[in-house]
Amino acid sequence: MELPKLEKFNAFETENADMWIQRYELMCEFSKWDDVQATRAFTCFIDDYVLAWYMLLDNEDRNNKQTLFRKFTERFGRKSIEKVGLWKDAADLKQKQYETVSQFISRIERLCFLAGQTLMMEQFILRGLRPEFVVPFVTATGLKQNFSVSEAIDAALLADITMQLVSKPEPVTSAIEDNPTPQIQPRSDGCSRADCKINVRIGSSVIHTLVDTGAAVSVINTNTYKSLQVDKPYPVDKSDLLGVRGVNDNFIRVLGKVTLPVEIGKLTLFHDFYILDDVNMPLILGRDFMHDQKAEISFPKQVLSLQNGMTEVSLSQGQDRDHTHNFVRVLSDVTFQPRQRNLKLFSCKNRKF
């Protein structure tokens, strides 16, 4: 059948979706189309964004004229204008000059989730990345020519981590913020930003784990890894990193990489950990884990949420084993230089400390 003239609906430019669907119904009536013809021709008058939404509908909804038009109005009508605006913001977002890949991805994810649509999220991420994180790294690592969008994003994340390790050493055992302020930070009764720990289960072992937003990658202590082999062998893969930088700017050699099933709350998550010989904590969850598992820390609530709130676990209180706090006071004003060992005099009321 020959299609009549009607402007194509554009989710970003058409001002009034309610008016447009009314004109479409009038066109169907004028063309003497039945309900089947009206629903089949619908895809010829919508843009790719609306088509992506249409493809997610059930066949029953697609083939029912009243249901299709109602759902279209609910999704693109006046009430959803604000969400479409957020979606357009995500589509136009670009990575800032001093913004890490992980931070940029978090901004786009937030806008897409607020807009209620994540179908094109990976394309938006790849399109908004700075050029140095896309073309050069893909060539250097030998990715196949027809790489997928997900592979390109993973490559950009790894390139960003590698660049940070080379140009700006990242500690793997420090949870101090990137730009700490000299003021005393308010503290609740729970953990501080430098001591956020949770209990995770791997097999039959329960491990007290540090959640470290200052660590670029997640790591596991060699002894901890060996203890896990009692229950089940976890094969070691070749590491894509030769080493990492510690809190004292010391180079720590990576012995290998292992994928472990980490049980946190109600979820079992598979994640890659770098095996280190010289690390104080048995297990550290870094920014790569935070990004991959869509994790967020709520310091007021003292909880770690995973997969956009699918499960939550309480953070430990950062106390000593006898559940008491020890406060120390320096004898004079002291400025501590980052990544340096310092020997200072201080007084302490608790002499058993």
From TrEMBL:
PROSITE patterns in the cross-refs: ASP_PROT_RETROV (PS50175)
Domain Peptidase A2: 207-289
Biological-process GO terms, alphabetical: proteolysis
Gene3D superfamilies, per the entry: Acid Proteases (2.40.70.10)
Protein known as: Peptidase A2 domain-containing protein
Superkingdom, taxonomy of origin: Eukaryota
Alphabetical keyword list: Hydrolase
UniProt cross-references to InterPro entries, sorted A to Z: Peptidase_A2_cat, Peptidase_aspartic_dom_sf, Retropepsins
Keyword match Ion transport: no
Natural source organism: Mytilus edulis (Blue mussel)
GO molecular function, one term: aspartic-type endopeptidase activity
SUPFAM superfamilies: Acid proteases
